[in-house]
Design a protein that fits this description.
heterodimer; A: alpha/beta; four-stranded mixed beta sheet; 36% helix; globular; B: 428 residues; alpha/beta; 20 helices; 49% helix
Chain lengths: 411, 428
């Protein structure tokens, strides 16, 4: 693979994912401004230095009856008037697509400093309506129309497919849930940081833990979240200057070491039919991981110290475990059982709490994940710091495993 | 966690005792909920399960009674958390028992929301006094994370530090240390503002006060609606205690309005007495507001929109908080004066507690922001500008707190954090 120009991550900020913007009487531009201004403050970047902006957002048209989201970047500061802006959408992978677009511009030497923003406001509607909106991330007419909560059902079927091919005990899914909630307790910006969770609660169907669809209970689901995050990506030229300003060496600044980006057919049935003979249930997701490792020059998973993965449901994290190569295909349960993926384990997954614990503002998630990798690599993750995290990876998925984006971040 | 922490809750059947049980259980602690009898302890467990939205809380909570289980359970507890009724003699009697059977290194904490911590420790053993402090949680504790830790003069500073660490890192609380003064920091400042609003409602009307000093001035909920939520009886207990035991620049603001005294006698307690009501009386979808002068309820009159209030809401909605406070400063007319008098009064009074009951402006900010969901006073100073706000304090005959004076002289920001921390408190 050809070597492209390096892309540096200078840092950023996110909103508290426990907030409810509707209750605060906020238009999404309010918290989005807070995230961008917070990122400027955290990196001591002057607004005048920003050259381009990319916003990841899934469905503001539906949740907030507003399109043209890229242009809202100008509302943050008058210094942004005139900047090139754009909005990117690939369902729950929207944030990563925005990162890829910004990276491409930096690699092509079009610009030296890009702001990437993720933003989703979801608490404007009730859960059934929200579930229907999320259905547009699948092939709506075929897989979601007229179905209550289509996505839990689709990801329940991912679990069923594992069960069919390799066997799957729900107790492992419960442990994945409990681990994410436990991690979220250490993250001061996680949505569920004050919620109760235990393995037995996650394992048991009850008044407070109802089945949403198939084998998916409330405890298996990520959250409905209002959230925004912003990060700055820079060329070597800008990063060199920025490092000098901060009394750092260029080698102290984290980089996107590699990326992978693959798309599978939209329909879940078509995906599963295609992979029937494959040892991986979602081979395109696997390929995105392999590509990212290759581009990063990472020999394999043993080089990775921490992962932020897309646990929109416990089944998607279960899938990520073997697809990352932590276990052989179909043996994800071993890593769960042995505590490999817990804090203090050999390879912690979602120290932030992930989508289940930290929250899942859909179009923001990819940006939040990269911000968390930046925190891990720079030792700035506070109570959820993975000791000695040097090389890290993230997986961000749109739809039922349709769009897969992977990044390796390290120094 | 290498060692599984164990807490014994005394008075587990009270609202705070039961819900704090959910907080400890949520952190994976072993919880022992003690009450007078098992039925009461069982009811506390159901409250905790509902608060945590999880039946599985039961796996971490053991129930017991004072007569049968107290001595034995306290013997190996890491923390003894007292959440009994606010009756100092009752509390002291329990502490005498605790003193006899506790492990020497265990921490004993009172959950009192304003009684003297030093008085509760009086007469106890050296070890008890060294390990005793107040841990004041706000209601409901599973949602509101602001927490005050109140050492008394003999509390071992190491114990205070340990308690703060444990609350912040194991229980996810936002912790400040306060001095042992009536109502501590949060309630002292918060109820000064709330009671002042109650007093003002007599002349200006309930709906008007809640509109003019509403969420746009930096609070999740309008002030009189907040008193209804807290309960008029609880409100009275707090302001009477402060009125009787402090003497400060806002003493008159703690005098209970006579219409509220009359209301309490007639069973008006706010939301918990829906029939009698409080400042508001709700019946299904219809809401009536109290006329404090006559005691009658009237269909809630919708206050006519006031342009400066609507302007502030509009700016808050878009996250332009400095502009919102620009509109706050520029607004003209009697209504604007009233809003400024209350809000500037809040900022002045809150920051003037630094050195008296709070250690720092940062501590005041944390507790107002995370205990009350109000805009932190230092953030308001920064949004208006320290120099400007000093002039405004003088205009309204309010004291200029030394920390604000200093910020105005040397320049720079007073608030410790950033917009991301306080933006949620400024409502559009």
């Amino acid at each position: 693979m050809p070597k492209s120009a390096p892309v540096y991550i200078l840092g950023g900020a996110q909103t508290d994912f426990a907030r409810n913007w509707t209750k605060e009487g906020k238009h999404f531009v309010g918290p989005m401004r807070e995230a961008v201004l917070g990122a400027l403050d955290a990196t001591k970047i002057d607004p005048k230095e920003v050259e381009t902006a990319h916003i990841g957002n899934f469905a503001a048209e539906l949740y907030a009856h507003q399109g043209h989201i890229g242009a809202f970047f100008l509302e943050v500061d008058p210094a942004f008037y005139g900047l090139p802006t754009s909005r990117h959408e690939a369902a729950c992978a929207s944030g990563s697509i925005a990162i890829l677009a910004a990276s491409a511009e930096i690699e092509a030497a079009r610009y030296d400093l890009a702001c990437v923003v993720g933003m989703e406001q979801m608490k404007t509607v009730d859960s059934t309506t929200g579930g229907d909106f999320l259905g547009t991330a699948a092939w709506y007419e075929k897989e979601a129309k007229g179905i209550e909560f289509p996505f839990p059902k689709l990801f329940g079927r991912l679990g069923d497919e594992y069960d069919k091919r390799y066997g799957l005990k729900d107790e492992y899914l419960a442990k994945i849930s409990a681990t994410n909630y436990a991690n979220a307790k250490r993250n001061p910006l996680a949505q569920t940081r004050n919620w109760f969770m235990s393995e037995s609660h996650a394992q048991t169907e009850s008044k407070f833990n109802q089945v949403i669809g198939g084998r998916i209970k409330v405890s298996d689901c990520s959250q409905v979240t209002d959230g925004s995050a912003a990060i700055f990506l820079a060329s070597e030229k800008f990063a060199t200057d920025w490092a000098k300003r901060h009394g750092k060496k260029l080698s102290d600044i984290p980089r996107i070491l590699g990326w992978g980006h693959h798309t599978a057919p939209l329909e879940f049935d078509v995906k599963v039919a295609e992979s029937r003979e494959d040892e991986y249930v979602l081979p395109h997701t696997r390929q995105a991981i392999v590509d990212a490792f290759k581009r990063a020059g990472v020999s394999g998973i043993e080089r990775i110290n921490a992962i932020e993965t897309h646990d929109c449901f416990t089944t998607s994290e279960y899938m990520a475990i073997d697809h990352f190569g932590i276990t052989k295909p179909g043996e994800s349960w071993k890593a769960v059982e042995e505590g490999v993926i817990e804090m203090g384990g050999k390879l912690p997954i979602n120290p932030s709490g992930g989508l289940i614990g930290a929250g899942h503002p859909v179009g923001c998630t990819g940006v939040r994940q990269m911000l968390d990798l930046h925190k891990q690599v720079t030792g700035a993750a506070g109570d959820y710091q993975v000791e000695g995290a040097k090389t890290t990876a993230m997986l961000n998925i749109g739809g039922s495993g349709t769009t897969s984006c992977v990044f390796v971040v390290g120094k | 966690m290498a060692h599984k922490m164990k807490v014994v809750i005394l008075g587990a059947n009270g609202a705070m005792g039961a819900t704090s049980g959910a907080v400890f259980a949520g952190a994976g602690w072993e919880v022992v909920s003690l009450a007078r009898d098992l039925d009461k302890a069982q009811a506390a467990l159901v409250t905790a399960q509902n608060a945590a939205r999880a039946e599985a809380v039961a796996e971490r909570v053991k129930l017991g009674t004072y007569d049968e289980h107290l001595d034995e359970e306290i013997a190996d507890a890491d923390l003894i958390f007292e959440s009994l009724a606010e009756d100092i003699e009752l509390k002291k009697a329990f502490f005498e028992r605790v003193d006899k059977c506790r492990r020497p290194d265990s921490i004993v904490a009172s959950g009192s929301s304003g009684l003297s911590i030093a008085e509760m420790a009086r007469g106890r053993s050296d070890s008890f006094r060294k390990h005793f402090l107040g841990i004041h949680l706000f209601n409901p504790p599973q949602v509101i994370v602001g927490t005050e830790v109140i050492p008394h003069p003999e509390t071992d500073p190491k114990v205070t530090r340990e308690a703060c660490e444990m609350l912040a890192h194991q229980l996810g609380r936002k912790v400040i240390v306060t001095r042992d003064r009536p109502a501590f920091v949060g309630n002292r400042v918060g109820f000064k503002v709330l009671n002042e609003c109650a007093q003002l409602s007599e002349e200006h009307g309930v709906a008007f006060i809640d509109y003019v000093v509403g969420p746009h001035t930096g609070r999740a909920m309008a002030p009189l609606a907040t008193i209804d939520l807290v309960g008029w009886d609880v409100h009275k207990a707090i302001v009477d205690n402060v009125y009787a035991h402090t003497e400060d620049e806002a003493h008159a603001a703690f005098r209970m309005p006579s219409f509220m005294e009359r209301g309490i006698k007639a069973g008006q307690m706010g939301d918990k007495t829906p029939k009698q009501g409080g400042f508001y009386r709700k019946d299904g979808k219809s809401v009536e507001a109290l006329d404090p002068k006559s005691g009658a309820y009237q269909t809630l009159p919708k206050p006519a929109p006031i342009p400066f209030v609507e302007r502030m809401k509009h700016y808050n909605r878009e996250g332009r908080y400095a502009q919102a406070f620009g509109a706050f400063a520029d607004a003209r007319g009697a209504e604007a004066d009233l809003m400024r008098r209350v809000i500037l009064g809040y900022v002045s009074y809150a920051l003037n507690r630094v050195g008296e009951v709070a250690e720092s402006a940062r501590d005041v900010d944390i507790i107002m922001s995370y205990g009350f969901n109000w805009a932190p006073p230092s953030a308001i100073v920064d949004l208006i500008g320290a120099k400007n706000i000093v002039k405004m304090f003088e205009q309204y005959n309010l004291m200029v707190p030394p920390v604000v004076e200093k910020a105005a002289t040397i320049g720079g920001k007073l608030y410790y954090g950033e917009m991301l921390d306080y933006g949620r408190t400024l409502v559009g």
